[in-house]
């Protein structure tokens, strides 16, 4: 069973050899049903596994009831997690922020967001390159995937944030400001670009994070500290349900994305959903296990944590080797 309400407004595919069919996953015997309160963001990197597990009945088979709350950005989601209103959150770059402060434990990665952040500019703004942002107002949200992308863009162009008039707003407000013509430039993420394409006449997508090797971020799951310490069995069952969904998304990608479009993203065309799916990289369980062990995951997390330090968001952070713990995933996947 799954219930939902909204809060704060509204590929390189993995190897099919992952071979983790839903029927192969372990099922708890006589385990008491448990409820997990989940905060998520709208976008396939964040919610594709959640809704696919729901569609396949994976949560119910694992003895879980899931209550979901939608957030605009990971900042609000983590604030609710730390405040005790949530048990789990799934977000992008903010997974390398709050856990690095010891506020939440990251334990499972959904996807690499390889091309989900975007820089939009107004027609007639005189902005034809990143260098042209100098002296201009740029709207985004502090500490998010979009802000990280902007930081990397400026580095590549030899600029600093002090060279701009940076306008930090909640992302829904930032998008609305851009559509209204109040700012000449916006850094945001998909799928929020849909409203820009429909409502901001002449707006130009200047570049996206897919064009920069070091601009990708990870999207994944964190648990409240007490949940990670005290409800390990519930998290194992959640991970088993996630594995069922991940196998579907990797081995039957086209059908899985089509199902998401029909049931969760009806305002998007099939082509727009494919474009959104192509902006992220999903991997099979064996491939994720390898990336957990070879420094790929911790390397990206640490890179984003270092960004948060550089922009004054964190002081003396934990390193990803401490705040990211994949042991639950590795244990459940090994027994599948």
TrEMBL record:
Span of the signal peptide: 1-31
Extract the InterPro entries matched here: SsuA/THI5, TAT_signal, TAT_signal_bac_arc
Q: Which domain of life is it from?
A: Bacteria
Q: Is Transcription regulation there in the keyword field?
A: no
The answer to whether the entry has keyword Signal is yes
Q: Which residues form the SsuA/THI5-like domain?
A: 50-250
Which key words tag this protein in UniProt? Answer: Signal
Q: What is this protein called?
A: Transporter substrate-binding domain-containing protein
């Amino acid at each position: 069973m799954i219930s939902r309400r909204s809060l704060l407004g509204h590929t390189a595919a993995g190897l099919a050899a992952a071979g983790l069919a839903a029927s192969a996953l372990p099922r708890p015997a006589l385990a008491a049903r448990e409820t997990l309160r989940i905060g998520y963001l709208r976008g396939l990197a964040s919610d594709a596994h959640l809704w696919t597990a729901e569609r396949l009945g994976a949560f119910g088979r694992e003895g879980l009831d899931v209550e979901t709350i939608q957030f605009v950005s990971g900042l609000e989601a983590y604030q609710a997690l730390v405040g005790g209103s949530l048990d789990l959150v799934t977000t992008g770059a903010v997974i390398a922020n709050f856990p690095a402060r010891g506020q939440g434990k990251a334990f499972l990665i959904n996807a690499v967001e390889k091309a989900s952040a975007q820089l939009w500019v107004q027609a007639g703004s005189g902005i034809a390159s990143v260098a042209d942002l100098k002296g201009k107002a740029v709207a985004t949200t502090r500490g998010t995937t979009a802000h990280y992308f902007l930081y990397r863009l400026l580095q590549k162009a030899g600029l600093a944030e002090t060279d701009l008039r940076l306008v930090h707003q909640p992302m829904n407000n930032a998008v609305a400001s851009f559509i209204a013509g109040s700012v000449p430039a916006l850094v945001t993420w998909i799928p929020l670009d849909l409203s820009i394409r429909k409502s901001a006449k002449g707006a130009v997508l200047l570049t996206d994070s897919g064009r920069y090797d070091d601009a990708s971020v990870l999207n994944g799951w964190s648990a409240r500290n007490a949940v990670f310490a005290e409800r390990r069995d519930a998290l194992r069952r959640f991970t088993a349900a996630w594995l069922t969904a991940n196998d579907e998304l990797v081995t039957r990608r086209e059908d899985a994305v089509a199902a998401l479009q029909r049931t969760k993203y009806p305002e998007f065309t099939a082509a727009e959903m494919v474009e959104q799916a192509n902006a992220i990289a999903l991997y099979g369980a064996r491939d994720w296990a390898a990336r957990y062990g070879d420094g790929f995951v911790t390397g990206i997390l640490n890179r984003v944590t270092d960004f948060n330090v550089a922009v004054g968001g964190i002081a003396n952070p934990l390193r990803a080797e401490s705040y990211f713990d994949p042991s639950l995933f590795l244990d459940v996947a090994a027994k599948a």
